[in-house]
Every structure is written in C-alpha cells, then in structure tokens.
C-alpha cells in the first residue's frame, strides 16, 4: 500500500464511515508528514477512534468511502496494553517478528524495563505494561505510530512520566504519530499539531510552536488551550 | 486511656466487657479436617466387623481386605489386571484427546466447520456414551476395540466442549492485536489460539480422565477376561466381597491419582495465571 504520496506519510481524502446510516466520519481530509506528531482531540462519539481504526485497517465490516493512503509499516498502541497474558514480556515485544532477540532486549531497555524480559505481564504495573506495549510498537520501527488514548487508563503521575518517555522515543525513532486523546493538555504537551474532530468533521487545527519543555504555566500554552477548549465546545 | 473519664463517653471496664459480635461464618478450618470423615467410616467399619454386627458375607472386614490385597499382589493377579485396565484407559484417553482437540480446532476456527461438526457433537453429548454400548457391541464385537472405542467416546466430548469454548472465548482484542502486528494464520494459531484455549482444554481433560475410568468400569464388566472390572465381576460370582472392595479401592486410587496428575499439569502449564492468584 506504500503508494506515491510524495512527502506525506498519511493522506486521507473525503473519508466517510457509517454505522447504521449514521455518518461517524463525514468527509475527513488529513495529511501527516514523516516524523510529524499529530494529536487528535474530540469528545466521546466524535469519531476519533473510528478514524484511527480506519488508518489501522481494523474497520472490516464498516461501510464507507473515501481515499486512504498509509504506509506499509504501521504500529498501533491501544488504551489497554493488550499484552498476551500467557507470553513473557520478551515474547510479547517480539510477537510476530523472527529472530533478533537482541532488538527486543534493546527495545525493553529503551522503555526502562531492562532485565524484565522473563516477567509475565500480570507481574507488571499498569504503567509498566503500557511501556512494554510501546516497546512492542517501536521495535518494528514503524513509519506511522497510531496511539488510541494510550495513557487513558493510567494515573496522573504515571501519565506525566509516560509523556516524557514518549517524546524521547519519538525523537529517537522519528515515526509519524497520530495520538488520539481527550486530554487537551496532553495534546499540547506532545504534539506538533492538534486537530479537533466534532461529529465526524475536523473543526479546528492548531500548530503548536511552543518551545520544549512545554509547561501549562506558559501564557502561550493557556491561549492555545482555551482556543482548543472552545473548539471542543467547553467554555471555561 | 487516661484516668479521667470524659463526660459523655461510656467507659469500658471489666464489669462491662466489650460485646463480641456473634460469628456468622463457619469459622477457622480444622486441621486435617478432610481426613476426619473417611477415618470415622473406617472406624465404624472395623468395629462393626470385629463385633460381628456386619456380616462377613455382606462386607468383608478391613483387615481381610488388606490381606486379600496382599495375596492378590503376591500371586501377580492384581498387577496384571491393573496393567490391562490402565492400558485400555490410556489408549482410549489418548485417542479421545486427539479427536476432541482436532474437532474443536476445526469447529472453532471455521464457521463451516462449526456448522458441520458442532450439531452432531452436541447430539452425541446428549446421549450417554454407555447407552451406545449395544450398538458398539453389534458393530465391533466384544473385543478390545469395542472397549477402547467406548472409552474414546466418553473422553472426546468433554475435551471438545471445553476446548471449543476456550477457543470461542479468546478475547477479540487479541485477535485485533494479531492483525496489527501482522501475524500469519499459523502464527496466530500458535501464539494466540492454542495458548488461549489451553485453560479450557485442561478443564476438559479433568472431566475426560474421570470419564475414561467410568467407561472402563462398565466395559470391563461385559464379557471381559482381564482387567480390574473382570476381577471384581468374577469375585461377585463367588461372593468374595474382599476382592470386590480391593477393586473399588484400586479404582478410587486411580481416579484420585489421575486427577492429581492433571491438576499438576494445569499448574505447570498455566503458571502465568498463578502469578495473578498469588
């Protein structure tokens, strides 16, 4: 499927997805450049997960139309870590890959879990499990990383640590990223560009130029945040 | 507590002890509690036999049973019959397990397979295997093949039912994961389907082992010339209750041992689960 999309990694044109005649995605256009980090914000039911699943090729029985070009090598991180409970951490990371055990070990080291190769997923905390899931995605060196509220189930402190880790990993591996989230601050801290989806359409877009490390104390941060909250229909 | 009594607080003294709530649960477990019932039965049996309250022709005394067991072992009858019985059970069990697993995989992994196989097996499940004996005797005679097929029929159904159920209840999220990491059909079966169905299979195995011994008892009492069941059947015609009881004890020990073996396999194979429980 690695079609000629020029300089973009993802190209979506007029994408429509319907469930029972209700358009969940209603004409979405989206380009993501190589190495670009895009955050997708939206209320529940706005269609953000549907868009991610369409990009991941996981919407088998869903009706729809439109053009979709994604690279061959796509990794997905889900809200739950989705580790196979009967496989040790190392086997989970290398699932579907042959040989090269060294890569799996390195990948675990990158997410701060060196030495835990032989652990069962049940022995890890929620944050550690999600780090294994990140290692599993990145060991494949994806051109596109799709993340569906990957930190949604974690506590606030663990989530902050995961933000730092994800930024570091993305800087090292340079995948294009589409992060689905409902957390406005998370989107601003992590992304180069934030898109707001409402009722299946893109209703706002913000390019984030704040210098790193981004802090909510920055006046620029507050301005972006209030514009995004406006687009989400939340008045503060 | 301080010496001064605060106004409004009722002071707890020796004369007004704390009221302990009545315990509603069954309380602490008794040490070796599981042994008390069987030991009590054994004591009643011994006393009954010693006092002549239990007629020797109805039920032999425990010590007679023990010496008879010793005699049967000494002249080799017990071992050779036990070996024949164990062989029948194991062969029937092995074939039944293979058949049950293969059918469960076919029916669990393809809709067509399920449509063709599941119905007949559910019908078979409703008919007790032992009710098929008259037909099996007509078709296969009264030889070894009839015995093994009867055991197999009792074994494959629980293996099929539980393995199939295990397959069908594998979380669809893992199927989605397998798609996103690009597993091939074979890798999907090996990494996701088989380990996911293993708990169901092992549960089925426990039922299957019990079923194998049950079928064995019945087939060995029909025109057999060897096996524990035959030994007991022969003893019946001579009114030797001691030998019958030796046979019963052997069946009981076999049942307990085989269940323990399956549970051991279960613990080993599902160690990833134990970490969750501990």
Key features of this structure:
heterodimer; A: 236 residues; alpha/beta; Rossmann fold; 6-stranded mixed beta sheet; 3-stranded antiparallel beta sheet; 7 helices; 9 strands; 26% strand; globular; disordered N terminus; B: 278 residues; mainly alpha; MetI-like fold; 0% strand; flat
Kindly report the oligomeric state of this protein: heterodimer
Mean pLDDT of chain A: 88
CA distance, first residue to last residue of chain B? 40 Å
pLDDT averaged over residues of chain B: 88
CATH superfamily of the domain at 1-69 and 183-236 in chain A: P-loop containing nucleotide triphosphate hydrolases
**How would you sum up the global shape of chain A?**
globular
Q: Which CATH first-tier class of chain B would you pick? A: Mainly Alpha
Rounded Rg of chain B: 28 Å
Derived from helix and strand composition plus strand pairing, the structural class of chain A reads alpha/beta
CATH topology of chain B: MetI-like fold
Structural class of chain B: mainly alpha
Number of self-contained structural domains of chain B = 1
Q: Helicity range of the residues of chain A?
A: 25-40%
Q: What strand order characterises the main sheet of chain A?
A: 5-6-7-3-8-9
Can you give the helix content of chain B as a percent range?
over 70%
Roughly what fraction of the amino acids of chain A lie in strands?
A: 25-35%
Portion in strands of chain B: under 5%
Total strands of chain B: the figure is 0
* CATH topology description of the domain at 1-69 and 183-236 in chain A: Rossmann fold
């Amino acid at each position: 499927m690695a079609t000629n999309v020029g300089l973009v990694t993802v190209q979506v044109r007029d994408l429509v997805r319907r469930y029972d005649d209700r358009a969940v995605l209603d004409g979405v256009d989206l380009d993501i450049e190589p190495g670009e980090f895009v955050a997708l914000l939206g209320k529940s039911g706005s269609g953000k997960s549907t868009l991610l699943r369409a990009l991941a090729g996981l919407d088998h029985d869903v009706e729809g139309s439109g053009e979709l070009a994604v690279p061959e090598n796509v990794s997905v991180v889900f809200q739950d870590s989705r580790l196979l409970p009967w496989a040790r951490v190392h086997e989970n990371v290398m699932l579907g890959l042959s040989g090269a055990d060294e890569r799996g070990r390195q990948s675990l080291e990158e997410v701060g879990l060196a030495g835990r190769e032989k652990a069962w997923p049940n022995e890890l905390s929620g944050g550690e499990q999600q780090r294994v899931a990140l290692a599993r995605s990145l060991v494949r060196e994806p051109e596109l990383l799709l993340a569906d509220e990957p930190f949604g189930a974690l506590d606030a402190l663990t989530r902050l640590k995961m933000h730092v880790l994800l930024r570091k990993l993305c800087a090292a591996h340079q995948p294009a990223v589409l992060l689905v989230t409902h957390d406005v601050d998370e989107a601003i801290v992590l992304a180069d560009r934030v898109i707001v989806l409402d009722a299946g359409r893109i209703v706002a877009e913000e390019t984030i130029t704040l210098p790193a490390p981004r802090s909510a104390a920055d006046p620029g941060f507050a301005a972006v945040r209030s514009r995004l909250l406006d687009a989400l229909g939340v008045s503060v | 507590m301080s010496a001064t009594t605060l106004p409004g607080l009722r002071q707890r003294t020796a004369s007004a002890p704390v009221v302990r709530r009545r315990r509603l649960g069954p309380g602490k477990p008794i040490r070796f509690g599981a042994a008390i019932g069987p030991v009590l039965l054994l004591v009643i049996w011994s006393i009954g036999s010693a006092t002549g309250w239990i007629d020797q022709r109805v039920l032999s005394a425990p010590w007679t049973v023990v010496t008879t067991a010793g005699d049967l072992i000494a002249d080799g009858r017990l071992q050779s019959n036990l070996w024949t019985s164990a062989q029948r059970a194991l062969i029937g069990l092995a074939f039944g397990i293979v058949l049950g697993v293969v059918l469960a995989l076919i029916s669990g992994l393809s809709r067509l397979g399920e449509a063709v196989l599941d119905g007949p097996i559910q019908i078979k499940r409703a008919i007790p295997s032992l009710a098929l004996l008259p037909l099996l005797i007509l078709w296969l005679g009264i030889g070894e093949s009839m015995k093994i097929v009867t055991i197999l029929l009792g074994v494959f159904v629980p293996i099929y039912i539980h393995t199939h159920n295990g397959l069908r209840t594998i979380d669809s999220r893992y199927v989605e994961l397998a798609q996103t990491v690009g597993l091939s059909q074979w890798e999907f079966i090996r990494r996701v389907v088989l380990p996911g169905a293993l708990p169901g299979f092992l549960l089925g195995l426990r039922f299957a082992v019990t079923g194998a011994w049950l079928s064995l008892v019945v087939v060995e009492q029909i025109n057999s010339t060897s096996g524990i069941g035959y030994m007991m059947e022969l003893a019946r015609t001579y009114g030797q209750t001691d030998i019958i009881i030796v046979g019963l004890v052997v069946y009981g020990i076999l049942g307990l041992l085989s269940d323990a073996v399956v549970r051991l396999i279960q613990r080993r194979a599902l160690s990833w689960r134990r970490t969750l429980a501990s």
